[in-house]
Amino acid sequence: MSTQLQSPVESVTDMVEGLARAARAARAAQRQLAQLDAPAKEHALKLAAEALRGAEAEILAANALDMANGAANGLTPALLDRLKLTPERLAGVADAVAQVAALADPVGQVIDEAVRPNGMVLQRVRVPVGVIGIIYESRPNVTADAAALCVRSGNATILRGGTEAVHSNRAIHAALVRGLTQGGVPADAVQLMPTQDRAAVGAMLAAAGLIDMIVPRGGKSLVARVQADARVPVLAHLDGINHTFVHAAADAAMARAIALNAKMRRTGICGAMETLLIDATYPDPHGLVEPLIDAGCELRGDARACAIDPRIMAATDDDWDTEYLEAILAVAVVDGLDEALAHIAAHASGHTDAIVTDDQAVADRFLGEVDSAIVMHNASSQFADGGEFGLGAEIGIATGRLHARGPVALEGLTTYKWLVRGSGQVRP
Predict the structure, then answer these.
(1) What is the pTM of this model?
(2) How far is Cα 59 from Cα 44, in angstroms, rounded to an integer?
(3) Dihedral angle sign, alpha carbons of residues 344, 347, 348, 353
(4) Which residues, in sequence order, are bridge partners of residue 418?
(5) Mutual angle of helices 56-72 and 166-182, in 10-degree steps
(6) pLDDT (tens digit per residue) in 61-87
(7) CA 281 to each of CA 59, 111, 118, 249: distance values in angstroms, whole numbers, following the listed order
(8) What are phi and psi of 115, to 5 degrees?
(9) Which one, of 337, 353, 340, 320, lies nearest residue 244 by Cα?
(10) What angle do CA 27, 112, 387 make, to 5 degrees?
């Protein structure tokens, strides 16, 4: 029988004990999951995708309740956009689960191999991390993405979604578990915390030995709390203060299209551009800013940027370090590549930064010197997404420098072990 977390806990002690029971059940389920071969996991995930499609009415009704509560509680338009599910978006969520099912299984992949002088054969092979705790806000699609990626990579997961998406998360989780269990995946392999009490997050962060890795996906305050309080290794996803630098040698039509798309396609995603840098010798700066203003974007600029168009407001120091996630954009005019690089080094969050230029030498230097998880040339930062990278769904964009960086998909949810095959060797 499943030991899924189902009933609200009544105290911090109860919560800690309940989490411990759930984590032990997850550990046992992960051992069972590890015995499933790649075709079995693929089949189970396809059934989960079909279950999501079959539960469209229930999931959308749950999401409508979350949207109404969010509006009543004053969520910003950007957060409401992250929260909202439509039939098209839900179909995309199900498609993403199916796409993960079709990906190559990383478990058991040989990373490298060597034969020692004494004849021993050494291999490093990919293995699941184990039990992964995922703490996230706003986006109900994370429930499905995280579950699919963890199952495909052989990990059990304990999910803790945000209060604003509680009904959506529960409906998505229920559908996923129906499909997965039909395919032979233990129900305890994908659990959803039943409480929105903040103490549940603290219990997860303190669960060393029970949870093997925590993945936070949310705003700066959530990630900061996780990093400060965790006694479990953390794979951090920080904010996206993303820059696009339009170099003097940029194609004007390309620069206009990229700048508009990078900001306005979807303002509430972490890959959205938050600062536009314009080379002082770029010949058509007004052609860059006018489409953004016409599209309803509020521009806040330095003195030289404000001189481009009277509708640009004066920026404050905070604007260069803000992830707006709405139709607000900081704009600065810089004296060439060196100043652009200096600005990015001072203000970027290490997420995604891009250059638009036809000068390959300048592009190569930008790609080499910008120290971000994703660095782009002549492309919109909105492509900062695991699906767009061919990785299937993603669990987040890791901005650190250890273990995994950039879109975290299947490989980022594995570690490795050494296999040593001998023929009787003893160490002298």
Answers:
(1) 0.82
(2) 20
(3) negative
(4) 124
(5) 160
(6) 999 999 999 999 999 887 898 899 999
(7) 52, 47, 64, 9
(8) -110, 120
(9) 353
(10) 65
Say how many C-beta atoms besides its own lie within 10 A of residue 90's C-beta.
Answer: 22
- Strands 328-334 and 121-128 come out as unpaired
Identify the residue whose tokens are 């409401």: 80
Contact indicator for 331, 319 with CB cutoff of 8 Å? no
CB within 8 Å of 88: residues ≥ 6 apart: none
DSSP-assigned beta bridge partners for residue 23: none
- Look up tokens 């190559």; give the residue: 104
Calculate mean pLDDT across residues 247-266.
Answer: 98
164 near 83, Cβ under 8 Å? Answer: yes
pLDDT single digits (tens) 138-169: 789 999 999 999 999 999 999 999 999 999 99
Give pLDDT, residue 238.
72
Question: How many other β-carbons are positioned within 10 Å of the β-carbon of residue 427?
Answer: 4
Q: Which is higher by pLDDT, 386 or 426?
A: 426
Task: Please give the residue that has the higher pLDDT: either 227 or 246.
Answer: 246
Chain segment 114-132, per-residue pLDDT in tens = 999 999 999 999 999 999 9
Asked whether the predicted pLDDT for residue 1 surpasses 50, the reply is no
The answer to whether 415 touches 129, Cβ cutoff 8 Å, is: yes
For residue 10, what pLDDT is reported?
54
What does the block give as tokens for 45?
A: 């995930």
Euclidean distance between CA atoms 394 and 100, whole angstroms: 9
Is the pLDDT assigned to residue 336 strictly greater than 70?
Answer: yes
Q: Are 338 and 325 in contact (CB under 8 A)?
A: no
Residue in the block written with tokens 């061919």: 390
Complete domains list, the chain, with CATH: 12-237+408-420 (3.40.605.10), 242-383 (3.40.309.10)
Distant-in-sequence, close-in-space partners of 351: CB < 8 Å, separation ≥ 6: 238, 239, 240, 241, 242, 270, 271, 372, 373, 374, 384, 397, 399
Beta bridge partner(s), residue 213: 132
Distance CA 118, CA 187 (A): 46
Q: How confident is the model at residue 9 (pLDDT cuts 50, 70, 90)?
A: very low
Instruction: Give the pLDDT mean for 20-32.
Output: 96
Q: Would you mind telling me the total number of residues written for the chain in this entry?
A: 428
